[in-house]
Specification:
Low-confidence stretches: none
Order of helices and strands: EHEEHEEHEH
Number of helices: 4
Number of strands: 6
Shape: globular
Strand content: 25-35%
Helix content: 25-40%
Structural class: alpha/beta
Mean pLDDT: 90
Length: 142
């Protein structure tokens, strides 16, 4: 059966992360049968990381605050999590199903695909976003 996505519910979760007037900084989307549905959202990135288990496959839209003492700005990333225990067929399917998620999650600076919990470290993601951002004028770091 072809995978489908609950566009309205997923778009609502996506928009809450993008909204500067909320504390929500991540939204996760999971498989339930052949449907992709919102799996949760929140203000604590650690809550999202706890969802990334060896038996899980999910997508997440995450807001990371970047900048220096002079300016702060939000950067967004799309994370695909594939747990170590996910079968080869499900791993292959997540690549094609990502197109459904990208119909909703359209604005992000960098995309990641992780299967090791250590890769989910916020500092690791922040470093990669900084590299992807081009010029770095942070006078504090040398």
């Amino acid at each position: 059966m072809a995978t489908q996505i609950d566009k309205e519910a997923c778009r609502d979760a996506y928009n809450q992360v993008r909204d500067d007037n909320t504390d929500v900084n991540w939204a996760a989307f999971k498989y339930e049968g052949s449907m992709i549905l919102p799996a949760g959202q929140g203000a604590d990135y650690e809550d999202f990381k706890s969802m990334c288990t060896d038996d899980a496959r999910l997508f997440a839209f995450v807001r990371i605050t970047m900048g220096d003492a002079m300016s702060k700005r939000a950067k967004f990333t799309l994370i695909t999590w594939i747990g170590e225990n996910i079968s080869g067929l499900q791993r292959a399917k997540i690549s094609t199903d990502k197109a459904l998620v990208k119909e909703i999650v359209q604005n992000f600076a960098k995309e990641f695909m992780f299967s090791d919990p250590r890769e989910l470290d916020a500092d690791n993601i922040r470093t990669e976003l900084k590299k992807a951002g081009g010029a770095n004028y942070d006078a504090q770091a040398e």
